[in-house]
Backbone:
């Protein structure tokens, strides 16, 4: 019965989302339904939260009469994995997606309560319509509330052991919060285009939302990478798998959007380009959902394949993107920009940033969709695009990006006095020397990739550090956020360079008592024992290095699914990770063992966390709160009939009609 | 030339430059890194080239997995259950879900003796997995008779 209540709540949420879509857009015109739209946003959240809570409860109490629970849970599963199993497969994870969409909508209805009716209504209305599409998709093709009656299974098919992990508890919710968060930027762009208010104020309103969504996506991607690193047992942290690319493409577009929004807010330039990027970022999120949930591309971790779902998502994608681009095509030509900037200016640097990011995005998109296009053209010939393809194009592009990024803090709006650049040049030279020397000292060999990465990373750090010192008394949170994010990029860059160039690995056949040396460390296979987990049996090996580090890789067998899983033994460190994974046991009782030495691999995720934190820090800048206050007073005047007088107030040019 | 025109010119130059760079990168990178997939039938009948990196797939024949007496070398036979079988040779560690009777993908090269030298062996994280490439061939995973002599450690 409770399950039916949850199902009913989601059906009600479908109706409410549609109502929000209509009411929102109407309130943009008449202004009186404004509070109704806000109420509907709260209702939508309440109903979807109710539906989601019901599903979580069904997992928690192991209600196997629900087909989705029976397929993805088991009575032996510990309670925290039973709860996280809710979003362990397609249906539940999409319910989570709609819930997060409702949370964002509600947050906008609260946080933007002071915006003009026109923008407020259209943003909420657009988000309502989007979530109407999502909930419809959920109910029509992938309801998690279907019952298995009669014939309730006694114990359930279990959650895929790969997903029984801390990474899965946190990775999808964070990632979806990022994906869906771009819907806010998207809706703001639509609202601004429709109402003809594509101006600096619009950029300022949508910037904090975009930052937060981007920060969540950054952490989500980093967590996914970390999870793949320790859970898949290969020690790789990025595979250019279509599903990874699906999350990375919105990130690239979102990163470009952040920077373009800065120009639009501060200088009133790049307006229509910014709107286009906002549309692109969310469209790519939808494309990612399509790739992951339709199974059209070969991926190691796609969801179960169902063509009907793929078709539905494709239709949603076409509607959202088609609609948005139509609005864009109708409105964009009316937008004019009067901003001027000179040869070497911050505007120009940010333009270069956008150009490089978009080129990188196009490159990744092409490689991801190439197998589809190839199959369609050749009539069924299957191909795959390997990681070397992506590295070939992406790595040089990021190096160029890093060069321009290093100049970011010294560049000024409009025109930069060339004298300022002298210091940056000096630091470049210093970084170059260190970049050439450090890898030699640390890694013992010259590797071009590592030298370039270290030099670029250090250069970025030097320039940002020096600039921060110069502005130590006047630094705003926005500035600190930017600095932190840029230094985070440098940290990731150095980590990637060092890991890629100096990682060592050896595959060996080892029995208890054997030793293997790698990169100056000797690993002794000291013992092998059998241990029992809550729902698995494992062979646990103990390796001891000559430095006294103990590692405990495991081979687990989950009897419910008869599935075998590698649990890597990792000695994590700031400078290097030691990593051991057990392969398969061999007929004579020895084991295939893969030992890896991965220098500075943690820097990759540390840098990503710094970037995300920087993004959030920038949102805390007081100017966004001042903005809210100003918008409120403006709205009060507007409501009192002072529209014409307020039209030319600072920061709010009259709508370009 | 006024500022607006110049800005437009700069933007256009960037756009064109970006497009050109993308196109150049894509073309050079694609040439070497696209791996065509060959089903067992085309590996056996000689369609698949030797000495070029390709992908192939098939079901692991029950009882065909043979580990070397020392080292990490292993060989096994992939089949489509329709008469096309070929031998795969791999040195290294097999993925967790590599099992006899399951569908797997291999990346590597055919040597002159038409043995597939796999540099990479892929199995998906799901026991009901069928590589999408093979879905069209119309074969299904089958269960081999356990316990299997090649995997003694987990006989429960």
Residues:
């Amino acid at each position: 019965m409770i399950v039916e209540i949850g199902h009913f709540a989601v059906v009600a949420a479908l109706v409410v989302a549609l109502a929000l879509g209509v009411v929102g857009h109407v309130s943009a015109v008449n202004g009186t339904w404004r509070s109704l739209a806000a109420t509907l946003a709260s209702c939508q959240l309440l109903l979807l939260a109710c539906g989601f809570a019901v599903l979580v409860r069904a997992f928690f109490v192991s209600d196997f009469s629900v087909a989705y629970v029976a397929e993805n849970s088991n009575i032996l599963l510990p309670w925290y994995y039973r709860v996280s199993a809710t979003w362990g497969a397609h249906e539940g994870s999409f319910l989570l997606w709609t819930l997060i969409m409702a949370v964002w909508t509600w947050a906008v209805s609260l946080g933007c309560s002071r915006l003009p009716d026109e923008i407020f209504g259209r943003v909420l209305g657009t988000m309502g319509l989007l979530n109407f599409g999502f909930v419809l998709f959920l109910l029509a093709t992938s309801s998690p509330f279907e019952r298995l009656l009669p014939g309730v299974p006694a114990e359930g098919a279990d959650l895929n052991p790969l997903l029984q992990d801390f990474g899965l508890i946190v990775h999808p919710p964070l990632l979806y919060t990022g994906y869906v968060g771009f819907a806010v930027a998207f809706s703001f762009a639509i609202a601004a285009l429709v109402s003809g208010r594509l101006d600096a104020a619009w950029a300022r309103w949508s910037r904090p939302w975009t930052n937060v969504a981007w920060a969540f996506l950054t952490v989500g991607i980093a967590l996914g990478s970390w999870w793949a690193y320790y859970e898949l047992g290969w020690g790789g942290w990025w595979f250019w798998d279509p599903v990874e690319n699906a999350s990375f493409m919105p990130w690239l577009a979102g990163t470009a959007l952040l920077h373009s929004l800065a120009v639009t807010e501060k200088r009133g330039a790049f307006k229509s380009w910014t709107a286009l990027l906002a549309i692109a970022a969310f469209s790519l999120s939808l494309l990612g959902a399509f790739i992951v949930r339709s199974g059209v591309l070969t991926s190691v971790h796609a969801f179960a394949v169902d063509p009907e779902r793929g078709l539905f998502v494709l239709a949603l994608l076409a509607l959202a993107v088609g609609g948005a681009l139509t609005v864009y095509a109708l409105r964009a030509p009316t937008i004019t920009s009067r901003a001027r900037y000179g040869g070497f200016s911050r505007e120009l640097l940010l333009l270069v940033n956008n150009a490089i990011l978009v080129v990188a995005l196009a490159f990744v998109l092409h490689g991801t969709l190439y197998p589809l296009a190839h199959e369609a053209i050749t009539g069924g010939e299957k191909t795959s695009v390997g990681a070397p393809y992506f590295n070939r194009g992406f790595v040089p592009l990021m190096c160029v990006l890093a060069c321009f990024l290093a100049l970011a803090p010294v560049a000024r709006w409009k025109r930069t006095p060339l004298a300022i650049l002298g210091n940056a040049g000096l630091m470049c030279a210093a970084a170059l020397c260190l970049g050439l020397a450090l890898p030699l000292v640390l890694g013992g060999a010259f590797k071009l990739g590592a030298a370039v990465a270290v030099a670029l990373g250090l250069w970025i750090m030097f320039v940002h550090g020096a600039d921060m010192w110069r502005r130590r008394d006047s630094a705003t949170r926005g500035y600190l956020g930017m600095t932190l994010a840029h230094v985070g990029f440098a940290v990731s860059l150095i980590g990637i360079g060092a890991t890629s160039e100096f990682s060592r690995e050896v595959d060996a056949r080892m029995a208890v008592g054997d030793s293997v040396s790698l990169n100056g460390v000797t690993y002794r296979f000291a013992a092998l024992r059998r241990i029992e987990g809550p729902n698995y049996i494992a062979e646990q090996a103990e390796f001891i290095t000559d430095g006294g580090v103990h590692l405990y890789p495991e081979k687990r067998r989950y009897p419910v699914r008869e599935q075998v899983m590698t649990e890597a033994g990792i000695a994590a460190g700031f400078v290097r990770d030691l990593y051991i994974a057990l392969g398969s046991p061999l007929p004579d009782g020895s084991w295939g063992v893969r030992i890896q030495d991965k220098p500075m691999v943690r820097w990759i995720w540390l840098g990503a966390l710094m970037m995300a934190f920087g993004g959030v820090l920038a949102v805390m800048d007081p100017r966004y709160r001042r903005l809210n206050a100003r918008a409120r007073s403006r709205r009060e005047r507007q409501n009192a009939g002072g529209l014409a007088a307020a039209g030319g107030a600072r920061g709010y040019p009259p709508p370009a009609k | 030339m006024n500022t607006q025109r110049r800005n437009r010119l700069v933007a256009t130059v960037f756009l064109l430059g970006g497009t050109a760079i993308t196109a150049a990168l894509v073309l050079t990178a694609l040439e070497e890194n696209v791996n065509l997939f060959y089903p067992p039938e085309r590996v056996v009948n000689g369609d698949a080239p030797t000495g070029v990196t390709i992908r192939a797939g098939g079901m692991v024949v029950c009882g065909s997995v043979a580990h070397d007496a020392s080292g990490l070398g292993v060989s096994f036979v992939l089949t489509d259950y329709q008469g096309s079988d070929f031998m795969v040779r791999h040195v290294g560690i097999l993925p967790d879900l590599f099992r006899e009777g399951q569908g797997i993908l291999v990346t590597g090269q055919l040597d002159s003796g038409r043995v597939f030298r796999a540099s990479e062996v892929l199995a998906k994280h799901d026991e009901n997995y069928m590589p999408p490439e093979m879905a069209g061939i119309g074969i299904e995973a089958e269960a081999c008779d356990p316990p299997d002599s090649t995997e003694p450690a987990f006989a429960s």
Observations:
- The radius of gyration of chain B is 23 Å.
- Confidence is low (pLDDT under 50) at residues 147-156 of chain B.
